[in-house]
Amino acid sequence: MSRGSLAGELSSKPPKSAQTQQITMTDRHSPVEPDADEEDTEMQAATAGGIPLGGVIYSFKKAKRNSLFYSGLLYTTFLAIFVTITMLIRPVDQTFQIQNAIIEGIAKDDMDSPRFEKTFFDMANYGDFWVWMFEVFYGNVFEGEWYNGEPRNRSHEYEDVPVMRYNRLQTAIRLRQSRVERDSCKTEEDNHELSRPCWGDYGTATAVTGNKHADRPTTDLTRWSTDLNYFEGRHDDGKQYKKSGYYVDLPINATRTLEILQTLVAERWVDENTRGIAIEMNTYNPAYDMSTVTRFKVDIRPGGLFIPSIEIFSARLYPYTSSIDGFRAFLELVFFFALLYYFWREGMEMRTEGWRYAQSFWNWVELANLTFFVVIMAYWLRYIGTFGPDRVSFKEQSVDKFQDLYTLTQVFSFTANMAAVNVVFSFVKFFKFLQLNQRMLLIWDVLTHAMGNIIPFMAIFVLITFAFTFAGHWLYGSRVFEFRTWNVAFGYLLRTLTEGIEYETLKNASPGATPLYVTAWIGIVTLVLLNMFIAILTDSYAFVQSRTKRMDELERDHVEDKENDWLLFLRSKLCCCFTPRNHETEKKILQLNKKAREMKEVLEMVDQERLWHTVLQTVTTEKDELSVEDVRPVCRAGHEGVPEMFLAGLVDAQQLTLDKPPRPATTMMEIGSLQTQISALEGDLQALLDINVIQYETKPSRPSSRAAQYSVGGAGGGGPPL
């Protein structure tokens, strides 16, 4: 039989369950068949008392797996394209090689200090800054000869100044600083005879603005500008110096740069007025076609603390030049149209669902995911479009002029960081497709069930941590780096949960309070709160595990083919590349597809997410049936009054039997049965005892014969004496 004839046979003879046939069958001798309305009425009457819960679970999963299969396959392809594009445009391993070489070679190289070895991160005073500038920065950037003493090749048309061997300087190096006015501190002059002169913290009111000779370095090499690139100090200690400041450009010439640096030292270019310093260097790696901007920053606080830090960004300035770039451009086009499709689908779902759309957690995840994708694309278009002219200027080396590569690479880096955040949302969305298998969704179900207890627990945890944060900040902030600000202290306390606390460092700062502080922190947070958190998750895991086990037991009685159910489903989805081996398999596949279509129509009558939530609640109540009253709240508009239609349609579409399958005996059931029998025997025994006591008390005299001793109440009664 051909596939077409078989499909016609199935469509002309819809299968019915034995229960359905029994319900719709009239008098077998009647020549008139019952019409559809009578069948529907009788089916609704039969299902009014409820239908087996296991059948609902199995039917719902079968119906959902059709849509989830195609949606999951499409989304997996969509996400794979996104990951491929991101990996091609930003090769992480190559970026690591370049950036780590610069950091290890310049920032972590030792200074030849007369007292002890220091690196850039150990900088503590003005002298350290200039020692690092001459011996480390200048020595590594303008390394003029090979290790055997031979001079480097200068035969190129450009200045071949390799930074860490393979990264060449693209432009001049910029040295800039932000300064404050003299006597800009807030301390009153009358407070102390040493209160003047003083230099306050950097801010709008204290910053030096304009080309003021008295408050700027006196060398003619220094320039003032309000149109520099954005400069911000260390994220937790520094200030926002913004786009104004003094700067000196160091050309790509070792001799000339050395002369400029010596002049800056002679003129005391860095002094008490200085609050922020930045050395900005642009390099290019020809092997990876990647440009890198490195910014060495030093924040100088009014208390005398030097805070060094580094910013480094890398980017491909010409991302559409190779054959691989052409392939990536094709993927970007496919990704763009796929994104439009997802927005169209969400819009249609909003239109259909109305206000119910906002009640679904997965819809919010979907919107957040798509919003991030739009932001990523917007910044990428800005990178390749808005900065087009600026990018062209980097094709040639600029020996004497500095060019802003920082702003360009920062946009690229922000785009990559947004992609990193969004990929988390993207993979969280996979939990939606894991509904195909309840056990694969176990972790998500545990977290969902525990969330009701986790939220108040986290509120208490944060409250206690805040208390220890301020206490630690006040106790150790003046001596311990990790407690210098309250936000840094808060982050440090969170890290101690996994890394441990540095007891000796804290004890040196405050010997008296440290034992009590550390003991209280470990006792309350580590021993009590963390174990409570584990207990919450353990309790939820036990609950979800028990619920999943019961769902499997209820569902097991309604699975048509336990071994080949999923195999048959996959074959039905891959029918384009799979030819059934026999007529029976082809018939099963067509019947499976027909059931899926019918079930899809039935589920249109209810809110599917709320229905599944109702099913889970019913499972936990130890009920074996889903009643009409359970279904009524989840019916959509237009179907609120007829939930019986949904139950009847579910039974008919999936050929469910309304007979309750016998539940397999378990140990607990046997124990319960024995307890019931024991209780019945105890009741019977107590009744016999009560009868014998009454008869014994009403007997007039004790008989002397042995036979009379066993008689109770004369003839007809008998039994052993009490």
TrEMBL record:
GO cellular component, one term: membrane
Protein name: Uncharacterized protein
Provenance organism: Vitrella brassicaformis (strain CCMP3155)
Membrane topology per record: Multi-pass membrane protein
Residue ranges of every copy of the Polycystin cation channel PKD1/PKD2 domain listed in the record: 327-542
Matching Pfam families: PKD_channel, Polycystin_dom
Coiled-coil annotated residue ranges, if any: 582-609
Similarity section: Belongs to the polycystin family.
